[in-house]
């Protein structure tokens, strides 16, 4: 046996061992066994010094070949084993993607405030400021300045909530107090006109109160959205066009709008506004009571007497006002059958919207 | 207002279909709220001819008849009536018909024989009081025809919504005038003058009006020798369609004329009025203290000082415009009538009717305002009708006291003003053409119109009232839609509104649902919450609450949230996370309007979510509530705030804290006390918080944001665990660390709290008794270079010495 034969034998053996190694650890042991400091190929190479001058180049060449072959086999095998290990790990980490994810609870805005926000966005886009006012008002702002005559029935104790007045004043108009829970958001109109000169473009959402027993279609507390515009040259046509724009934004461009003359103390001319029924498109069906139309708001041109109370010249300025109920709109939009659901706080109800 | 279409058609020429008429009324401001088909109840009742009438074999009192109703086969009908013979024509209710009494006719077996319908009496058809036998019809009645149509019972009644400004439309006359104007037809004013004879009325009646402001006109007529009895059919039919039950011919006429012309009338039994020198003196005056009257309904009524009365020489005989008195009521033996037709002050009538709870067709009309010009015409009309239906002789003349007579108002209407307000381009002639059909006198003068307003339109007082008339008759649908131009306008939300929206959005992102509760409060909740009001605070009390539980305005949002939690828990929803932003109300002695404070409150209970296959679903506690507040504060960039342990009646001691911004207590958070859980029927723990929104806005406003360099060099992080007394708060240690850290210390974060288990044996204890260990992560960083451990070591050593001294702690090794 020449040393070259030994090298070739060792090469065969080493390549077989590499091939046989089935784990990274076994492969490493194989490497150390052949190429480590005490490895068998290393031992042979160390013995090269004892060779003759003539033998040396040939043996050197072969031994390099062997070494390179073993090293590349090791490398290839290592890559194969690593790849297999990664694949194994990937396989082991596979999940059932249909299992539920880790959830963070989603909080919902109350549907009434969602409606209010939607309306606010529409009118803010038309250049309206958002105004607010107190929920406990004086008779003057809720009634008198809004052109309600002193004996107007809405002032009656059976319709309007009155608050004990601790100032010692006696009410002139109704009973012992002229402090009341506002029955509409319209007093905000008066506050705005007292505080601000035209042009006035405001939207005033808020809670209002009327003495109704809570039942599916009544609540003693509900949410109104009031609009007021006072400027030079404002016409009834402007009111009509504004409300048509609003209805198309809120309910869809296919809905039709009709204004019916009506009476409110603080606007003249006044109108009620109907939207064509979404279900029958105006033909009349069960859901609109056969009318084809659903009433959604009241409106009109600001009465000159109201301007008189706030010192705005009705010859120079004209204006319009409108008011609507968020509960009514939510009811129409989502078909909520019982208004009491809005105040009970049932989270299963809240999460529907 | 119920309007019989038949009646209406007598007064105005309506040819269009009912639906079109309703649309036209809707679009001109008189909403048609409902359309009733009268006589529809008698659908299925036809005219039949009795062919044969035989004795029922098994019942003495029944007959067995064959009745021709114009169908192929005659009906077999078992009948109990006896007042008919073969050949008679009678109304027959066929199988399926429902009679006014609610009876639905079915095929039935009566003593063994099948009956295929029912022959009807007047009572069964609701057309009269005779129940003794069948209604026998004339031999000319067409067999097979609808009975309702034959008898002229078919009518359509429109229910009109009459707005408060249109008292004139509370009469057929007014509605006819309005209909004529809106459909462009002619109409006829019903009128009538009685033929008079005998002694003049002025000899029998004198009228004194004490206060012309309360009664602008009072007329009296005298009708002698009437015979009280039932009214003729036409009269019964008309007032029934209008919604009133017949009483007797005289009363029915007063009601008829009220519906027809809008003038409430009252008939006194003249013989029962006190007289002096053969004449009754009617005085219209306010009640004197202590006066009483027994009204028509038999009630004795005490009268307040401003009740307007009709009196004779002996005292009150009627509540003016509201209800008559019993003592002078028209009864079966009444012979002479005093007919009152007057105009009373709307406010006075409204007060009286509301105070006494007496609301009548008469009081409703006076409340809205009755045309004073109408009184004499209505009296004439009614007197003529009474003479017609009740006999009697109308005494010559009308006693008419009219102290409140006023000239008709004249208004100026500028056509350009109309167009300015409506956005129209109407010509003067257009406006005239719209207004005249309403009965207004219109004359063009100096580029404007002079408009004379008739007395039946008291709502037309100003130019704008006429603009409204033009608008509704021109048609709102004919006004072109535009949108305001609006120079110099600025829109959008205020900064405060935007910040509030951000707070709410943050809460929702944190998993809280928004609740809106009642603004009312239950004063008993003060005790349920052990809530003490400050000495200068008073609850806002409602004078007329709906209930004890809603007797005040809420001073805190907590009960609203606790009740919502309870509502959910009782329905099997255990995980509830709510917030509410709403007004809390408090007042004080001497205050007129209460203080309104916008509050943000929250309630958390259960888990953030049900335990899942890969999430534990821990029970929410104090620190979840605090975490929500921290999240909100971070979203607002509000970092100058803190909490401090506090005692509040409704919170569990030891799990209760005040929220402090800039040294002020602006809110609180904590877990609800066990008593509170019981009182509100809630399962705990429930974390609650409430904080002033104004304070949040202030805290947010304080954070003015300025760019700082984002760190460019790596930090050195050192951990330290400090063993301190239980009583030393995390906040105290944290601020000691911050103040001792030097300028390289960027942040301090507490990451662990360790305590030995309570009662752990000595060898298992790792800390001295009464101590805890707080572990912090300290981040050191320099803005201009990479730090090495050695760079921070001196600062760290100094920090350890200082902090251990400051909090009496030692480093845990
Ligand atoms: Zn419909």
Structure, explained:
- The complex is a heterodimer of chains A (353) and B (813).
- With 353 residues, chain A is of the alpha+beta class.
- Chain A is 41% helix and 18% strand.
- Chain A is built from twelve helices and nine strands.
- Chain A has helices at 3-20, 24-35, 40-46, 55-93, 111-125, 139-142, 187-195, 236-251, 304-310, 326-334, 341-344, 347-350, and strands spanning 129-130, 136-138, 179-181, 200-209, 221-231, 257-264, 267-276, 293-302, 318-325.
- With 813 residues, chain B is of the alpha+beta class.
- In chain B, β7 and β8 form a beta hairpin.
- In chain B, α1 crosses α5 (172-183).
- The longest helix of chain B has 19 residues, at 789-807.
- Chain B is elongated.
- The mean pLDDT of chain B is 91.
- The interface between A and B is large, with 94 and 103 residues.
- The structure holds zinc ion.
- The site of zinc ion has 8 residues of chain A, from loops.
- Residues 277, 279-280, 284-285, 287-288, 292 of chain A line the site of zinc ion (ZN).
Which stretches of chain A are low in confidence, meaning pLDDT under 50 for 5 or more residues running? none
Oligomer: heterodimer
Question: Helical stretch count of chain A?
Answer: 12
The CATH topology of the largest domain in chain A: BirA Bifunctional Protein, domain 2
Estimated structural class of chain B: alpha+beta
Rg of chain A is 44 Å
Annotation, overall tally of beta strands of chain B: 40
Q: Brief description of this entry?
A:
Chain A has 353 residues and is α+β, with helices and mostly antiparallel strands. Chain A has 12 helices and 9 strands. In chain A, the strands form 2 sheets. In chain A, strands 1-4-5-9-8-7-6 form a 7-stranded mixed β-sheet, with helices on both faces. A two-stranded antiparallel sheet of chain A has the order 2-3.
Explain the layout of strands and helices.
The complex is a heterodimer of chains A (353) and B (813).
Chain A: H1 3-20, H2 24-35, H3 40-46, H4 55-93, H5 111-125, E1 129-130, E2 136-138, H6 139-142, E3 179-181, H7 187-195, E4 200-209, E5 221-231, H8 236-251, E6 257-264, E7 267-276, E8 293-302, H9 304-310, E9 318-325, H10 326-334, H11 341-344, H12 347-350
Parallel strand pairs in A: 1-4
Antiparallel strand pairs in A: 2-3, 4-5, 5-9, 6-7, 7-8, 8-9
Helix pairs in contact in A: 1-4, 2-4, 5-10
Chain B: E1 2-4, H1 5-11, H2 18-27, E2 31-38, E3 45-55, E4 63-68, E5 75-79, E6 89-94, E7 108-110, E8 113-115, E9 117-119, H3 122-125, H4 147-150, E10 155-161, H5 172-183, E11 205-209, E12 215-224, H6 233-242, H7 249-261, E13 265-269, E14 275-276, E15 279-286, E16 292-294, E17 300-302, E18 308-312, E19 315-319, E20 323-324, E21 337-344, H8 346-356, H9 361-368, H10 374-390, E22 393-394, E23 399-401, E24 410-414, H11 415-422, H12 428-435, E25 441-445, E26 448-452, H13 463-474, H14 495-509, E27 513-514, E28 520-521, H15 525-528, E29 540-541, E30 552-553, H16 558-570, E31 576-586, E32 595-605, H17 622-635, E33 641-645, E34 651-661, E35 664-672, H18 674-679, E36 686-692, H19 693-702, E37 716-725, H20 730-740, E38 745-754, E39 771-780, H21 789-807, E40 810-811
Parallel strand pairs in B: 11-15, 27-31
Antiparallel strand pairs in B: 1-10, 2-10, 3-4, 3-6, 4-5, 6-9, 7-8, 12-21, 12-22, 12-23, 13-21, 14-15, 15-18, 16-17, 18-19, 19-20, 24-26, 25-26, 28-30, 29-30, 31-32, 32-36, 33-34, 34-35, 35-36, 37-39, 37-40, 38-39
Helix pairs in contact in B: 1-5, 6-7, 7-10, 8-9, 11-13, 14-17, 20-21
């Amino acid at each position: 046996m020449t040393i070259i034969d030994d090298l070739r034998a060792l090469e065969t053996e080493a390549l077989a061992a590499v091939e046989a190694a089935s784990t990274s650890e076994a492969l490493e042991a194989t490497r150390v066994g052949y190429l480590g400091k005490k490895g068998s190929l290393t031992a042979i190479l160390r013995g090269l010094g004892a060779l003759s001058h003539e033998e040396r180049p040939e043996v050197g060449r072969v031994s390099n070949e062997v070494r390179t072959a073993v090293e590349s086999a090791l490398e290839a095998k290592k890559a194969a084993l690593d790849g297999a290990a990664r694949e194994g790990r990937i396989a082991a980490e596979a999940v059932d993607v249909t299992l539920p994810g880790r959830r963070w609870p989603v909080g919902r805005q109350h549907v009434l405030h969602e409606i209010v926000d939607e309306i606010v966005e529409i009118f803010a886009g038309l250049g309206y400021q958002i105004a607010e006012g107190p929920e406990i008002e004086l008779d003057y702002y809720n009634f008198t300045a809004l052109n309600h005559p002193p004996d107007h029935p809405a002032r009656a104790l059976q319709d309007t909530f009155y608050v004990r007045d601790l100032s010692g004043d006696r009410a002139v108009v109704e009973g012992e107090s002229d402090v009341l829970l506002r029955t509409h958001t319209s007093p905000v109109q008066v506050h705005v006109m007292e505080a601000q000169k035209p042009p006035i473009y405001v939207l005033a959402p808020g809670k209002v109160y009327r003495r109704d027993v809570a039942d599916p279609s009544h609540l003693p507390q509900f949410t109104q959205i009031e609009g007021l515009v006072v400027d030079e040259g404002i016409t009834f046509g402007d009111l009509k066009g504004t409300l048509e724009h609003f209805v198309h934004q809120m309910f869809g461009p296919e809905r039709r709008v009709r204004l019916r003359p009506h009476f409110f103390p603080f606007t003249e001319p006044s109108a009620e506004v109907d939207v064509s029924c979404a279900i029958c498109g105006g033909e009349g069906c069960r859901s609109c009571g056969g009318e084809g139309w659903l009433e959604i708001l009241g409106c009109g041109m600001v009465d000159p007497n109201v301007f008189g109370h706030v010192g705005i010249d009705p010859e120079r300025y004209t204006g319009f006002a409108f008011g609507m109920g968020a509960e009514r709109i939510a009811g129409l939009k989502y078909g909520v059958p019982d208004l009491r659901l809005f105040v009970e706080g049932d989270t299963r109800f809240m999460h529907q919207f | 207002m119920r309007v019989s279409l038949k009646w209406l058609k007598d007064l105005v020429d309506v040819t269009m279909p009912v639906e079109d008429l309703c649309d036209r009324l809707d679009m001109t401001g008189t909403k048609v709220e409902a359309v009733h088909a009268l006589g529809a109840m008698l659908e299925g009742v036809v005219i039949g001819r009795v062919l044969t009438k035989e004795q029922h074999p098994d019942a003495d009192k029944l007959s067995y008849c064959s009745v021709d109703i114009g169908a192929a086969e005659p009906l077999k009908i078992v009948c109990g009536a006896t007042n008919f013979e073969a050949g008679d024509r009678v109304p027959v209710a066929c199988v399926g018909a429902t009679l006014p009494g609610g009876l639905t006719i079915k095929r039935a077996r009566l003593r063994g024989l099948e009956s295929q319908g029912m022959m009807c009496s007047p009572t069964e058809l609701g057309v009269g009081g005779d129940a003794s036998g069948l209604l026998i019809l004339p031999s000319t009645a067409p067999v097979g025809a609808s009975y309702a149509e034959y008898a002229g019972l078919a009518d359509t009644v429109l229910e009109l919504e009459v707005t408060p400004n249109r008292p004139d439309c509370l009469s057929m006359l007014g509605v006819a005038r309005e209909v004529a104007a809106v459909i462009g037809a002619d109409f006829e004013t019903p009128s009538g003058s009685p033929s008079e004879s005998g002694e003049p009325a002025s000899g029998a009646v004198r009228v004194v009006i004490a206060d012309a402001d309360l009664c602008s006109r009072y007329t009296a007529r005298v009708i002698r020798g009437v015979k009280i009895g039932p009214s003729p059919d036409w009269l019964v039919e008309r007032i029934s369609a209008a919604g009133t039950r017949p009483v007797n011919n005289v009363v029915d006429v007063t009601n008829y004329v009220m519906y027809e012309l809008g003038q409430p009338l009252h008939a006194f039994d003249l013989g029962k009025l006190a007289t002096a020198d053969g004449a009754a003196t009617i005085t219209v005056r306010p009640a004197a203290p202590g006066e009483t009257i027994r009204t028509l309904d038999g009630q004795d009524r005490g009268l307040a000082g401003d009740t307007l009365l009709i009196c004779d020489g002996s005292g009150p005989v009627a509540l003016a415009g509201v209800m008559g008195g019993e003592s002078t009521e028209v009864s079966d033996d009444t012979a002479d009538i005093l007919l009152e037709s007057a105009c009373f002050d709307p406010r006075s009538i409204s007060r009286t009717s509301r105070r006494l709870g007496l609301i009548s067709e008469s009081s409703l009309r006076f409340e809205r305002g009755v045309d004073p010009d109408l009184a004499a015409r209505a009296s004439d009309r009614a007197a003529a009708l009474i003479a017609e239906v009740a006999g009697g002789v109308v005494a010559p003349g009308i006693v008419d006291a009219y102290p409140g007579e006023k000239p008709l108002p004249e208004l100026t209407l500028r056509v350009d003003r109309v167009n300015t307000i409506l956005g129209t381009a109407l010509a003067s002639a257009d406006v005239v053409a719209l207004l005249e059909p309403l009965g207004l006198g219109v004359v063009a003068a100096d580029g404007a119109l002079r408009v004379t307003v008739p007395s039946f339109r008291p709502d037309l007082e100003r130019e704008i009232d006429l603009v409204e008339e033009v608008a509704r008759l021109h048609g709102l649908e004919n006004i072109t839609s535009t949108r305001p131009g609006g120079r110099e306008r600025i829109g959008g939300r205020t900064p405060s509104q935007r910040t509030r929206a951000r707070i709410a959005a943050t809460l929702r992102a944190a998993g809280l649902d928004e609740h809106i509760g009642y603004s009312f409060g239950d004063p008993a909740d003060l005790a349920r919450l052990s809530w003490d009001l400050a000495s200068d605070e008073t609850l806002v009390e409602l004078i007329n609450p709906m209930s004890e539980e809603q007797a005040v305005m809420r001073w805190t949002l907590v009960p609203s949230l606790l009740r919502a939690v309870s509502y959910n828990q009782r329905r099997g929803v255990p995980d509830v996370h709510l917030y509410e932003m709403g007004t809390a109300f408090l007042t004080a002695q001497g205050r007129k309007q209460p203080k309104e404070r916008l509050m943000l409150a929250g309630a958390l209970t259960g888990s953030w979510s049900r335990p899942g296959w890969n999430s534990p679903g821990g029970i929410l506690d104090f620190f979840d509530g605090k975490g929500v507040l921290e999240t909100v504060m971070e979203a607002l960039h509000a970092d100058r705030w803190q909490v401090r342990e506090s005692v509040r009646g409704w919170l569990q001691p030891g799990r209760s804290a005040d929220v402090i911004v800039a040294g002020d207590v602006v809110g609180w958070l904590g877990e609800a006390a066990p008593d509170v859980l019981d009182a509100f029927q809630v399962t705990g723990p429930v974390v609650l918080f409430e904080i002033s929104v104004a304070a949040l806005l202030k805290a947010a406003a304080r954070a003015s944001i300025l760019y700082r360099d984002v760190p460019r060099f790596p930090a050195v992080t050192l951990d330290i665990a400090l063993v301190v007394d239980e009583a030393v708060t995390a906040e105290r240690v944290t601020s000691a660390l911050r103040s001792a850290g030097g300028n390289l210390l960027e942040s301090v974060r507490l990451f662990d709290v360790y305590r030995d288990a309570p009662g752990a044996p000595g060898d298992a204890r790792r800390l001295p008794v009464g101590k805890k260990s707080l572990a912090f992560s300290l981040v050191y960083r320099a803005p201009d270079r990479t730090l090495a451990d050695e760079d921070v070591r001196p600062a760290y050593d100094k920090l350890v010495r200082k902090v251990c001294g400051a909090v009496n702690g030692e480093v845990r090794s």
